Amino acid sequence: MFSTPLSPGGPETLALREGADPIAGDHEVVIRVAAAGVNRADVLQRQGHYPPPPGAPAHPGLEVSGSVAALGAGVAGISEGDEVVALLAGGGYADLVAVHESLVLPVPTGLSLVEAGGLMEAACTVWSNLAAADATAGQTLLVHGGSGGVGSLAIQMGAAMGMRVFATAGGRERAGRCEELGAERGVDHREEDFVEILRAAGGADVILDVIGAAYLDRNLRALRTGGALVVIGMQGGATAELNLGRLLSSRARVIGTTLRARPLEEKAAIVAGVRRDVWPLVPDAVRPLIHATYPLAEAGQAHRALDGGDVFGKLLLIP
Ligand SMILES: NC(=O)c1ccc[n+]([C@@H]2O[C@H](COP(=O)([O-])OP(=O)(O)OC[C@H]3O[C@@H](n4cnc5c(N)ncnc54)[C@H](OP(=O)(O)O)[C@@H]3O)[C@@H](O)[C@H]2O)c1
User: Fold this and answer.
1) What is the pLDDT of residues 76-87, one digit of tens each?
2) Does 216 fall in a domain?
């Protein structure tokens, strides 16, 4: 059983369908899903803008928690019944999902099985992009969309590793919640100028950006000399003019990444890094912020809520 649109469209196109149960191939496990995280990428996929990479299931869902229901040949260190989380290239909106053993981690101690369903995609995204920017303790990090699933975890991870964190969100109340998560200053992007605020603070060493084109020039102006802008989303468009004079004179780097379509070995290395560096921080310093849960049959309602703009953190689907 899984939830998927039959053709690209609005939230109403998501509906439960019957399908063959996945089978564990070599070095794969089948997970009985307890919770599936909802990500903005799923909305793009539903609309037909973000097709799954070759070999991935056609239905959406980039992360799950659950218990191991079956083991393929050659799996080591995982047993049937283990409570786990997994990073997926697709297929999480289901009651069962097959995934390579290297993309599976145990549920961190102190998190409920359901809560853990909202951790993997954001943890892997933030960890890999802070690494790409060579982020270190003592540096200044600007997180755009600090109210989002990725952003709310990025604030906590940055603060936990000793960074000085600034975060943008829509409205004073949401900016205030970013401060409660560990940001020194939440910036209301509707009323305040993040460039001014970051420059007054000495500039950002690292910017984690989910906006893209609309923020490119302002991001470069908010960077400190030698800083790194990591673009992971394009909510503000894909095409913009890059002021090379500004880039050269500030000796800055602009980096773009995606997680989903990376080769298995790269994703496995990221998952291993998350286990080493992030798992010890959970749940005391870092935990997924679960805004609401929905039955899998109501995945369309969850997508509507995400488009509604009131969600702070993550939504989960429960099969
Ligand atoms: N490249 C990758 O590997 C990768 C991996 C994961 C996610 N992503 C991308 O990262 C983005 C965030 O994903 P998500 O799942 O965290 O989505 P989400 O939970 O929907 O969060 C998106 C956030 O963007 C914020 N936002 C909207 N307009 C803004 C603006 N002008 N300035 C600052 N913030 C603004 C919203 O905050 P307010 O409502 O408070 O304004 C919202 O909280 C998406 O574009 C997704 O595709 C990329």
Assistant:
1) 999 999 999 999
2) yes
